[in-house]
Amino acid sequence: MTTDRYQKGIDKIQELTNSSDDNPTGFMDIGESFKDIAPDLEKYVVEYAFGDIYSRPGISNHQKVLATITALVAQGKPQIAMHVKTGLSVGLRPEEIVGNIMHLLPYVGFPSVLNALNAAKEVFKEEGVTVDTSAVE
Amino acid sequence: MTTDRYQKGIDKIQELTNSSDDNPTGFMDIGESFKDIAPDLEKYVVEYAFGDIYSRPGISNHQKVLATITALVAQGKPQIAMHVKTGLSVGLRPEEIVGNIMHLLPYVGFPSVLNALNAAKEVFKEEGVTVDTSAVE
Amino acid sequence: MTTDRYQKGIDKIQELTNSSDDNPTGFMDIGESFKDIAPDLEKYVVEYAFGDIYSRPGISNHQKVLATITALVAQGKPQIAMHVKTGLSVGLRPEEIVGNIMHLLPYVGFPSVLNALNAAKEVFKEEGVTVDTSAVE
Amino acid sequence: MTTDRYQKGIDKIQELTNSSDDNPTGFMDIGESFKDIAPDLEKYVVEYAFGDIYSRPGISNHQKVLATITALVAQGKPQIAMHVKTGLSVGLRPEEIVGNIMHLLPYVGFPSVLNALNAAKEVFKEEGVTVDTSAVE
Amino acid sequence: MTTDRYQKGIDKIQELTNSSDDNPTGFMDIGESFKDIAPDLEKYVVEYAFGDIYSRPGISNHQKVLATITALVAQGKPQIAMHVKTGLSVGLRPEEIVGNIMHLLPYVGFPSVLNALNAAKEVFKEEGVTVDTSAVE
Amino acid sequence: MTTDRYQKGIDKIQELTNSSDDNPTGFMDIGESFKDIAPDLEKYVVEYAFGDIYSRPGISNHQKVLATITALVAQGKPQIAMHVKTGLSVGLRPEEIVGNIMHLLPYVGFPSVLNALNAAKEVFKEEGVTVDTSAVE
């Protein structure tokens, strides 16, 4: 049975990933690979993370994705790449994503920033995105 | 001797804190209390953190402060309050600051978010700021 | 409007805190102090944390509270005390709570364990609980 | 020279890993690969971690392994898999291991839990263990 | 019953804290305040932390204390002050302690360094120690 | 345009890596792989991390590299290997590097130390370095 919150979450994911109706969750990992060990995980991802929190008013999708990337950089989590991809999908310019990661240098130090830039660089390459670096050369 | 980077950093701090020329660093802690043990710390704060990084083009002051707050929330650092104050100073609406912290729930968990909201609430009270919560009631 | 998940969460909190019907959330901080800045936080605490996750079958309340305490010790969060109190409330013996914290020594190191034991000791004192230490003297 | 604490540690490891007398430390990594650079490390692992701490009375082996897994999830350490294996070895049901990891969602967030479930899933597959998910579907 | 490792640990603590025979553990917190809840903790602190690890050959006491301070700064633990005191006690110059903390700026960021310098400054004040800052002014 | 701080940073890197004038930055990662997305990163690495901080007087290169390694171990960062290599380059004996990592056991726990020793062991192997373990056998 699909709840309203579940549908709201799916709609939000589709909006964030700019996905077709055939595959509304697109490239987003919503925990579907854990069906055999924790089938309810997907529900919490969709209903709570996307239906409740990502759907909360107050800040833009741009800001939501940047906040997510920042938290993952500060924690050193491997999910950075997927959220960089989401950032491009919601229309963040690559300069904004890089600028946000670079801004963290005085707070998280060089190693965390270098790791995050590696993840971003890889996504940009996969997506064929080039960064306009003229302003910081 | 004041370098260009130092002046650029001071200018950026004044812009961020909306401070008078008499006291350009305003409420920002730039490490001046460590003159007796590490007098060069202030130089790194002003020149590197503010002159280099905060002055980097690519993202807005609004986004820079939100990224800073997010990193501090994810790390559980006590400097959250000062940067919430900076957020208000650069013109972030309190709903945006709260919205950004609330967005971190699925990534950092409840305890870190509760601690950050406590810090924000305290600053809002000091600054006489009220939050429009009509959209999330 | 109270949802089923909200009621389920409140019931779980009452079960965990062993509270009266007059004050079912007892000593548990459910985020009610943030009504003026993030009134929806309470909903996420009650519905998601307690209605969904704490109500999930598979492990006992004893184990849920010990897992919570362990996560907070590993992260160095100040909420340890409240969850030690919950531990006593669900019937964990103080020796189990202390034993669980002591077990973390090889994984989180002495400083985190010492800080956690300080929090536990304080709660035991407030609650008039004594620890039977005969087995480890 | 084998001390009493060393033997006690080996006995505890054998109990935890359910290993034969021929290879009492079984699948447990006790630091033996560091003989050429830090030969005393094995002694600390066996004597202190297992002879002292894992042998401490007060909580069951079940709880000790769950506390270990929880601490590793909260810290994002790669040793999760080995301790999930230990969990199965001491008789924890896979539902308890998954249930314990899922319980951490409100405290450590989705990325840490997803990473831990990936590790657990891999171990379950290697060990031919299936999870009864009927209660959470 | 006092073991050899216990005596070795006490000797090391006395050496580190430069304490009298009447009070050999001096200002060092060895967990004696937890006698009522975890009386064996003191044993692990003295035997393992000091008798085994601090007594390990290979690096000097100076380096051991600096490594301890560094780990605590990187983790944001409140025990920094006690180990700064130990640093002075083993003969580290205050410039070395401050220099070591300042060196962490590119790795842990400003907030962690500022918090650590606050702790160090407080200890220097209590101990009547002044820092020669002429080389970095 | 090369600033004095940039040249000072390059000189420090050459000193640390013991590199030839043809390739003064040697094996050190100074962020040059990010030219296409954040070309200014290299400047901050060279000018700030090496020109300012590594060039700060007060502690020796030996201690600077050990402090760096310690911070990375405590944070679980993958850059440990490169800095172990730097340690050998500045003349630290492998016993000192291992001794420093082993000393962290009571503060960061076994998993972080095991991961760090793995990184060190790999570097020692690549560099053909053997550790004199006679004192700790």
CATH topology of the largest domain in chain A: AhpD-like
Oligomer: homohexamer
What is the CATH level 1 assignment of the largest domain in chain A? Answer: Mainly Alpha
Strand content of chain A: under 5%
Q: Which terms summarize this structure?
A:
137 residues; AhpD-like; mainly alpha; homohexamer
Strand and helix map with partners:
6 copies of one chain form a homohexamer.
Chain A: H1 4-17, H2 41-53, H3 61-75, H4 80-89, H5 94-103, H6 105-108, H7 110-127
Question: Could you walk me through the main structural features you see in this protein, from its secondary elements to its overall organization?
Answer:
The structure is a homohexamer. Chain A folds into two domains: about 5-55, no CATH class; about 60-135, AhpD-like (Up-down Bundle). Chain A contains seven helices and no strands. Chain A is globular, with a radius of gyration of 16 Å. The first copy, chain A, has helices at about 5-15, 40-55, 60-75, 80-90, 95-105, 105-110, 110-125. By secondary structure, chain A is mainly α. The interface between A and B is medium-sized, with 33 and 33 residues.
